[in-house]
């Protein structure tokens, strides 16, 4: 079992602590949080061992899980990697692309594994259809949340939209060609609502909308590709796949058949895969353990986390140029 520790014991940090303790692939050694009073309360109430310093925790671990506010990601990750320990780091990977690239260089230098916590890659609905994507050419994503003061210190793009950015980049095997975006600040000092149109070199277009002042929650993406439509409901953990094929000469009485202007006939059918419920955070942590133990590539690499950050920051830059 890999000895694991958590840096940062806020809302998400507590969830990671609980799951690492439950996991059969890790031995949770404890956590460090800079807020001494909060750390003592967590230790007393939840029973997790609180380490006196960040360095002491890192020394006791094989893998360190960084769940601090983003502003501290690079400094914490740098210490983890320079100590020769494997790194799991929450999204976004760092505050800047320069920090992310410096972290990539450090990981390579010290020969350790790294994974970014883009948890929607492990959403069971996305997992159920990920092998069905075949050059999608239009993608539409909506990620709407009710207002919560936690997280409003960063633009909605880094808070919410980056989930969809990462998922889309993992599906579209092409470089980004151009980005157009707009954002509006309603309650916060940074944009609360954002829309981005991403064009890829292969012609694919992705239209992303994110809001953290919505009256209802929504986390849904739709992918359109040749002869197929794939819908992923990340919130309800459901998916829908609609495919088309050439209509048979002899049709079933209940077959759904369309005829286009050229007279070609296509049959519509549903090919919905089974969605296996899971705990996405536990899965991302445990697959990282597998990558360490088997010396394989993590499912969400630091390079992929860097690209998601690069696109997110380009979207935010477009806001400022309006």
UniProtKB/TrEMBL annotation:
Domain Gfo/Idh/MocA-like oxidoreductase N-terminal per the UniProt entry, residue ranges: 3-118
Organism: Halomarinibacterium sedimenti
InterPro entries (alphabetical): Gfo/Idh/MocA-like_OxRdtase_N (IPR000683), Gfo/Idh/MocA_Oxidoreductases (IPR051450), GFO_IDH_MocA-like_dom (IPR055170)
Domain GFO/IDH/MocA-like oxidoreductase: 156-217
A family per Pfam: GFO_IDH_MocA
Gene Ontology molecular function, alphabetical: nucleotide binding
Name of the protein in question: Gfo/Idh/MocA family oxidoreductase
């Amino acid at each position: 079992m890999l000895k694991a520790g958590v840096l940062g014991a806020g809302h998400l940090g507590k969830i990671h602590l609980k799951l690492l303790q439950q996991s059969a692939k890790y031995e949770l050694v404890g956590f460090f949080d800079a807020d001494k009073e909060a750390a003592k309360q967590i230790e007393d109430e939840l029973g997790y061992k609180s380490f006196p310093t960040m360095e002491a925790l890192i020394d006791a671990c094989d893998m360190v899980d960084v769940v601090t506010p983003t502003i501290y990601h690079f400094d914490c990750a740098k210490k983890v990697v320079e100590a020769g320990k494997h790194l799991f780091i929450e999204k976004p990977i760092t505050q800047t692309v320069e920090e992310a690239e410096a972290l990539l260089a450090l990981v390579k230098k010290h020969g350790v594994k790294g994974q970014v916590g883009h948890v929607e890659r492990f959403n069971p609905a996305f997992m159920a259809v990920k092998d069905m994507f075949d050059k999608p050419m239009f993608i539409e994503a909506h990620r709407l949340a009710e207002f919560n003061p936690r997280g409003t210190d960063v633009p909605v793009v880094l808070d919410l939209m980056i989930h969809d950015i990462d998922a889309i980049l993992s599906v579209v095997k092409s470089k980004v060609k151009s980005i157009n975006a707009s954002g509006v600040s309603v309650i916060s000092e940074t944009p609360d609502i954002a829309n981005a149109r991403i064009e890829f070199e292969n012609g694919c277009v992705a239209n992303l909308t994110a809001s953290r002042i919505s009256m209802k929650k929504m986390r849904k993406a739709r992918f359109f590709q040749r002869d197929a439509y794939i819908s992923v409901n990340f919130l309800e953990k459901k998916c829908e796949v609609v495919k088309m094929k050439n209509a048979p000469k002899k049709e079933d009485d209940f077959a759904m058949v369309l005829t286009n202007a050229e007279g070609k006939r296509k049959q519509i059918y549903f090919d919905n895969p089974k969605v296996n419920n899971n705990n996405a955070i536990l899965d991302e942590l445990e697959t990282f353990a597998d990558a360490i133990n088997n010396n394989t590539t993590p499912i969400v690499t630091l390079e992929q986390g860097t690209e998601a950050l690069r696109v997110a920051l380009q979207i935010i830059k477009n806001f400022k140029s309006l």
